Amino acid sequence: MARILVGVSGSAACFKAAALCSQLSQAGHCVQVILTESAAAMVTPLQFSCLTGNPALVDEFEPADPAGMDHISLAKDAELLVVIPATANTIGNLAQGLAPNLLGSFALAYGTQGPRLVVPAMHPGMWGNPAVQRNVATLAADGWTQVGPVVGGTACGEIGEGRMVETDVIFEAIQAALTS
Predict the structure, then answer these.
(1) SS3 label, residue 78
(2) Catalytic site residues?
C-alpha cells in the first residue's frame, strides 16, 4: 500500500481529517500526519498518532528527525500528499510557495514527485473571495487536484459552497490518484 502524508490545517472540519486517517490506515496505507499549529489547537496530534500508528508532527523546531529535517525525510518517502481540511490561509501559502510551518516546508520539499490533493473547507464568503479563487486556480495550474468543496451547511451555520466533502469522496479521490 501507499505512504500517504496528510496535512491538516485549522478548521472546524478537522474531525473529518481524523476519520479519513482512520479509513486510510484500515485500508493498509502508511499514514503520516502533519498538523498546523491551528489544527493542533482544535484536535490533538495524539488522536492522529493513535489512528495511524505514527507520531503526528506539528512543530518543525521539535523534529522527529535528529538532523531537524523532517520535511525533507518525509518528502523522500511520501507517495501522495493530501491537505484536509485546506483553509483559505493554507491554500494561499501553498499557492504562493510559502513555508510558515512544517506543512508548508513539506509541501515545497515534496514538490511534484507524486499526486497532490487539496480539500477546501471554509465559510462560503471566504470560498467565494476572489483572492481565494486566484490561489485555487494557481494550485490547479501547478498540478494540484481539488476535491470539493460542496454546497451545504458550514460550521458557522450558513449554507453555501465551502462545506468540505465527506471522507468517502476523499478516500475515492486518493485511491484514483494512486492508480493513475
Answers:
(1) coil
(2) 156
Q: Do 120 and 46 contact (CB within 8 A), yes or no?
A: no
Give yes or no for residue 69 having a pLDDT over 70: no
Q: How many CB atoms lie within 10 A of CB 91?
A: 26
pLDDT at 131 (0 to 100): 98
**DSSP assignments along 99-142, one per residue:** -SSHHHHHHHHHTTSS-EEEEE---HHHHT-HHHHHHHHHHHHT
Q: Which residues does 120 contact at the CB level (< 8 Å), separation at least 6?
A: 85, 86, 87, 91, 127, 136, 146, 148, 149, 162, 164
Amino acid at residue number 58: V
pTM of the model: 0.95
Q: What pLDDT, on the 0 to 100 scale, is given for residue 67?
A: 56
Q: Which of 52-66, 78-92, 98-112 has the lowest mean pLDDT?
A: 52-66
List the grid coordinates of 132: 481565494
State residue 159 phi and psi, 5-degree precision.
-110, 130
Amino acid code (one letter) for 41: A
Residue indicated by cell numbers 462545506: 163
Query: For residue 52, which amino acid is it?
Result: T
The set of residues, in sequence order, having a beta carbon less than 8 Å from that of 129 and lying 6+ positions away, is 88
